[in-house]
Each structure stands twice: as C-alpha cells, then as structure tokens.
Design goal:
This protein is mainly β. It is 7% helix and 26% strand.
C-alpha cells in the first residue's frame, strides 16, 4: 500500500538541461568565464523547483537541512546554495510539490519553499514530531496543518498494537491536543496515540520503551511500570520529583528507587540493551591485590614484586616521590612501596581502587588500567593521556571504556559528591553544558546542586583540597569566596598579579598567602616528573620549574607553574621550555625569541 501519494509528476532537470545555468551562452573564444571557473571548483550547478538560485552538490559532516530536522550519522549529502546558504538533503530537494498524506487525508499538502506564512496564530512546528519546520515544509492552509519533510517521507502508522506497551490497539490522533503521556509523565501538545476505552494516551516515542533494563546509576535491574503509586518519589538520575500517577522505572529489590522513563534511557545512563527474558548476570570484579603477609601485598599493576605498607609517619616533601596511580606527592600519607624497586609507590587508598566500577559519565562499567602502554590517537599522545572529564594531562592509572578515559581522581567521583566549599551534596543530573560557579568556565561534565544553582565542573571537583608550595611551611587549602562580599584585594604569591575573588584559589589561613590554581598546580602536575612522553611525534620530558623560571618558547612569558615540559631532542631551539598544555597545542612554530615579563 502506498502511504504517501505524490500528486504532481514533476521531475528534476537533467544534467544536460542544467548546463545553461553553468556556462555563459556567448562564450565563443574558448576562454574560461567566471562561472566556468566557479563550476570547476564547486561542481556543476542545478536549478530545482524548490529554490530560486543555482544549487551545487554538497557534503557536510555536521550540516543542518533546511527541509527536515534529521541529523544523520554519515553527515548531510545533498545540495547547497552559495548565494543564500540554503542547504538540503538530496531526498528533500527531490520532494514532490504536492502529496496526499495518511495523517491528513482530508486535503492534499502543498510544498512551501520559503517557510510558513507569517501569521500571528500560526503553529510553526511539525504536527507529528513537534520540531520547528524549516524553509521546506508541507502545509495545508485550510487546516493549518504542517509536516516537515522527514515526517512526510516516513509517515507514522495510524494504528499500532504492541503487547509490551498496552493490551489494546492504539490509534494516532494527528491534531493539537494537550495531554500527559501515561508512559513518561511529560506533557505534550500534539499527536498522541490513544486508547479511548482505557483513557490511555502515549507519545509515539514511548510506545516501544524497553520493559527491563540495567542502568549505570543502580546496581539492580529496573522495570517499566505505568503506575508507581502514591509516595515521595525522586528520580535516581535527575533527582527531580516523579509523579506516581504516571509511568516510570522502578527496582523490585530497592522499594524506594525509581527513575523517570526518559531519564532511564539517556545515552549516558543506559547501554541500549533490553533485558526482558534474559538471565541476570552476576557482576564479578577481581580484587586489586592479594595479601602476601601482614602489611605485604602483591598488586595487579606490579605483579613482579611485592609491596610493603609504610606507616606514613615521615613527612616526605620531595615532589618527585609520587604515587603511580594518582601521580600526587606522597607527603605524610600511608602508602605501599615496592620492596625491590625504588620508584614504585601507591597510596594505600589508591592500592584499594576497584578494578571495575560504575561511573556517572558512562553507560558501561569502567576498567582500571595501570600506567603502562598509554596510547591516544587524538590528540596523538604516547606515555600520557588526556582525561575526558577534567581535560588535564595525566600519566597515572586510568579508568577506561569505549572512548572515555578518566584519571583516578575523576574516576573516583561518585554521587552524592560532597564538596568542601559548598554545604549541599552535588549530582550529575543532565547532559547540558553549564558554567562552573567556581572557575567561571563552561564544561560538558558538571555536578549540580538540587537545592540551589551551584554548578561544579569535574576539573574543579577533582582539585586536591590541600597542596604544598615549595616556599611555604604550611599547606595551602582550597578557598571559594565567590558568594561572599569581601573587601580588599587578593594578589597571587607566585605570578604577583591581582586575583579575581569570584574564582576559586588556594590560600594559607595561618600565613595569609594566596595563589591562583594554575600557578600552584600548573598543567603538568599529574604527569610524573622526569617522565618522557610523546606529543604529535615529538618527545618531551617533565621537569621541575627552576627558581629563575625559564621563558616559554611558545608564548614568550616566564613559566609560572611548578612543572614545565622540555623538548628531549633540541633542534632549532636552545631552550625548548613549554609552560602549559595550551602552548603545547600551538604547534612547532617559534613564536617569541625573547622572554616577556
């Protein structure tokens, strides 16, 4: 059965018919005209009924079609107008001027090529999917009925029977009507599927919701229900209230755990597997070490030798003595050290890191890998990696799965997260990018407070609460005074510049110095000192910054962080020092030949 009938047999012009639009008619001397040169670069142009200007073949990996909202994984393959920027899929460009559509059988729909007419009460969205229509839209002016080209090409079934969704047949109601979906509890204003005898209404996208799934935020399977019942329900993902009169997912083991239907199937929460009728899998996780004797273990990352527990009573201030997992200095923390190697040390806490764990940023379990064989294709790195959450360069252990790599600091962040500079617990509730309150930078990975507007990105959440600076006897502590009215000015002890009081910083309560985060930590704090790594096929070594603070050959300023990277094989430069990750990204061009103060 033909669901969409094309009423006008209007074919696109052939290639030969379009040559008149590609070349000048009076070209008799054999020389190239401007239009011929343009066509040689852009390809031959076409004139199509949908647009008033010539169109050229066009491909874009991220382009948006002016006829439909469809974003395809393989990009946009179609046509583009160099005069006005009009871009369209090939299928949309070849749309019939008039069709009969099953969702609007009373009148034919006409293809408009300049968008909907400007009228005050005009509904400017597709009647079926609710997306805003573009320049190309099928429209019935009698009924004020509009369809984008994707919905016109892919008509919805007028009747649906799905045993997993509802016991009766559901019928499409393609009209404007306010309703609350029985499956997800969200309000909508158009085109539900309905069962009149049950007073049941549902979104088309909710009909095929999975029945039983496993989400990364909960240890047990959860099942779909159309009625939670009365109670103070809160979603285990977004932390907002759930209306028990409508559908959600709930746990049969944990009686108080439930998740919004739409939150449960978010791409960072659910792995896409329907588990109904599948046997429950027991998650097994190998222990990170085996006990050899009292205070002696054999860790999976260093199986060739045993590690002995040190009491941590000695205050170690050497910055080069680092934990192999988190790459933070040992200081006075309890740690394990190799009984035969001098340079293999693990904090006691890091030695107990689980080898597999659930994390809020990925829909699969992450696996803990040691610090060997680190390879990243983009950016091209060998020996170090870029943490997906905080975007810092790291050389320690990492939690990894698919395309995500987390250092152990970001990998250890879990919900609820308690931040020293904020009184309420924080949660990872949405996929939207937000501006971090403490550093004022936008980030894709943030933790939010459900009691107030506080937002914290993972970079700031993973900052160590205390650090040591080589000239101070006392440790520096994190401080955020952005929500307080403080008189006076703060000056950084290291770079000697005035500080923004609304941005988080380190300070010492007893002696009073204050420092920028980037000045006391730098960009190479979590790369092991003296480590050689490769970036874009060039080898670098991490070194302590000296008292004289060498100049960065990329930006020309003196290096202010505690660590710098130095080119291992010097070629054109006598002192190839780089101060930051940003400067490391700048390429191999010598920007400054003198130091700028």
């Amino acid at each position: 059965m033909v669901l969409v009938e094309e009423l006008s047999d209007v074919s696109s012009p052939t290639y030969e018919e379009n040559q008149a639009y590609s070349y000048d008619d009076d070209d008799d001397d054999g020389s190239l005209t401007p239009s011929m040169v343009f066509d040689q670069i852009m390809g031959p142009s076409l004139m199509l009924p949908i647009h008033e200007h010539p169109l050229h073949s066009h491909y874009s990996s991220t382009g948006q079609c002016d006829g439909c909202p469809e974003l395809r994984e393989n990009g946009l393959d179609g046509y583009n107008c160099d005069t006005c920027g009009f871009t369209v899929h090939k299928e949309c460009a070849e749309s019939s001027p008039e069709i009969n559509h099953p969702s609007h059988q009373r009148h034919p729909l006409t293809l408009l090529t300049h968008g909907l007419p400007q009228e005050a009460d005009q509904d400017d969205k597709c009647r079926l999917c609710g997306e805003k229509v573009g320049k190309l839209v099928y429209h019935c002016s009698i009924c004020d009925f509009s369809l984008d080209l994707y919905c016109a090409r892919n008509p919805l079934s007028l009747v649906v029977y799905s045993r997993k969704c509802h016991e009766h047949t559901l019928t499409l109601m393609p009209r404007l009507i306010n309703f609350t979906c029985n499956a997800c509890g969200l309000e909508s204003d158009r085109s539900p599927y309905v069962c009149p005898q049950c007073d049941f209404m549902i979104h088309e996208g909710c009909i095929y919701l999975p029945r039983v799934i496993n989400i990364i935020r909960h240890e047990h399977r959860i099942s779909r229900t159309y009625f939670l019942g009365s109670g103070d329900w809160k979603c285990g993902v977004c932390r907002r209230r759930i209306d028990g009169r409508y559908g959600a997912y709930s746990c049969s083991i944990c009686s108080d755990y439930a998740v919004h239907s739409r939150c449960a199937i978010r791409r960072d929460v659910w792995d896409g597997r329907e588990l109904e009728d599948e046997p429950e899998e027991i998650e097994e996780c190998e222990e990170p070490y085996r006990i050899v004797s009292d205070g002696v273990i054999n860790h999976f990352s260093h199986r060739e030798h045993d590690l002995r527990l040190e009491d941590g009573l000695t205050n170690i201030r050497d910055e080069n003595i680092r934990c192999r997992a988190c790459v933070r200095p040992v200081y006075s923390n309890t740690f394990y050290s190799c009984m035969q190697c001098d340079d293999f040390i693990l904090h006691e806490k890091c030695a107990n890191l689980p080898r597999k764990k659930r994390h809020v940023l990925h829909n699969h379990q992450l696996t803990l890998y040691p610090d060997d064989n680190i390879v990243m294709d983009f950016p091209m790195l060998r020996g170090v990696f870029l943490c997906s959450a905080c975007r810092r360069l790291c050389s320690g252990f990492r939690y990894e799965c698919c395309n995500i790599k987390l250092d152990v600091r970001c990998g250890s962040i879990s919900e609820p997260f308690f931040y020293e500079c904020h009184p309420h617990p924080l949660f990872q509730t949405s996929l939207d990018s937000k501006v971090c309150v403490t550093c004022k930078q936008e980030s894709d990975y943030v933790l939010t407070c459900i009691d107030c507007d506080f937002v914290l990105d993972f970079k700031c959440a993973a900052l160590p609460p205390t650090v040591r600076y080589k000239y101070d006897r006392h440790p520096l502590k994190l401080c955020y005074d952005g929500d307080k009215d403080i008189a006076g000015s703060y000056w950084c002890e290291i770079c000697e510049r005035e500080m923004d009081q609304n941005i988080i910083f380190y300070t010492c309560e007893s002696s009073g110095p204050t420092t920028h985060i980037e000045c006391v930590l730098g960009d190479f704090r979590y790369v092991k000192p003296r480590l050689h790594f490769e970036f874009n096929k060039k080898k670098w070594e991490v070194a302590l910054n000296g008292i004289n603070r060498p100049g960065c050959y990329k930006c020309g300023f003196r290096c202010k962080g505690p660590f710098v990277v130095v080119s291992v094989f010097l070629t054109d430069y006598d002192n190839s020092y780089v101060c930051s990750l940003l400067c490391l990204w700048k390429g191999e061009t010598l920007v400054y030949d003198r130091i700028r103060d």
